[in-house]
Amino acid sequence: MTFGDKLGAVFDRSGHLCVGIDPHAWILDQWGLEDSAEGAREFGLRVVEAAWNRAGILKPQVSFFERHGSAGYAALERVIAEARAAGILVIADAKRGDIGSTQQAYGEAWLRPGSPLESDAVTLSPYLGLGSLQSSLELAEAAGKGVFVLAATSNPEAAGLQTARVAETERTVAASMLAGVAQWNGSRKDQSERRFGSVGVVLGATLELAKFGININEEPVGPAVPVLAPGFGHQGAEVSETRRLFGALTPGVIVSESRGLLSAGRDGIADAIARRAEEVEAKRG
Ligand SMILES: O=C(O)c1cc(=O)[nH]c(=O)n1[C@@H]1O[C@H](COP(=O)(O)O)[C@@H](O)[C@H]1O
């Protein structure tokens, strides 16, 4: 089964909500947990438990575990393993990207079956060129894993860079990433039978994508491109705006939210996830 197939099955079974696992120091404090690797582990495991049967996708933010060093990584390994054992799809938000040979090692860390950090998908940064990520796209394909390439990110500082035009095509950087990813998915074998490709893009839900040179009304040729869409909740995007923001891309949109849900606290998180999951399905459009 490809990652795109798995994602389609999760959408059908559990909907499009993705819960971020971002153990910020202040959230750990709010939850009555220590700002330590142990606190991050307890927090992550509680979110996994709360998501079980309520949401189908989790996105641990690697940085908040990494700040606790090797113990933080051990905590992250446990959280990822528990989530995957519970049948929840895990997108490791690592935002890695480097020259080809180094990128291969990043790919192995997050996507190789049996790796301690093995996840279902990983976020990658294409600042060294989309081609530099090739080895990870190939590994993902061989292992039934997914990749999300940053295209138009939700933070305001990104617009200058991501709306710049690429010399060869005159497309914006953001549109080039989307086109490159769609082309990759479309060139895979059996792609005509697939609903979703296994490589997606990150498009912030806080953005007007037209300003990034992305035509949301253009039907993608080949399988739909999965879209990891952060920016809901704390950053201000509304679930009811999904169709207006993403147009023809909407079927592949993963509605990602971290602080907006996590701030419900230890006792409120399960209900908050259940409510938001229902809202996403009712209002996504
Ligand atoms: O790749 C991401 O998930 C990501 C891309 C982006 O453009 N913007 C963005 O906020 N994110 C991540 O999504 C999460 C957003 O968290 P909240 O704003 O608390 O929902 C954080 O883990 C960010 O690192």
UniProtKB/TrEMBL annotation:
Q: What class of enzyme is it?
A: lyase
Chain ranges of the Orotidine 5'-phosphate decarboxylase domain: 16-273
EC code(s) of this entry: 4.1.1.23
- Coiled coil located at which positions? none
Keywords per UniProt = Decarboxylase, Lyase, Pyrimidine biosynthesis
The answer on whether this UniProt entry bears the keyword Lyase reads yes
Associated pathway? Pyrimidine metabolism; UMP biosynthesis via de novo pathway; UMP from orotate: step 2/2
| Reactions the enzyme catalyzes | orotidine 5'-phosphate + H(+) = UMP + CO2
**Highest taxon of the source?**
Bacteria
Q: Which family does it belong to?
A: Belongs to the OMP decarboxylase family. Type 2 subfamily.
Q: Which NCBIfam families match?
A: pyrF_sub2 (TIGR02127)
Its protein name is Orotidine-5'-phosphate decarboxylase
- Record the organism: Microterricola pindariensis
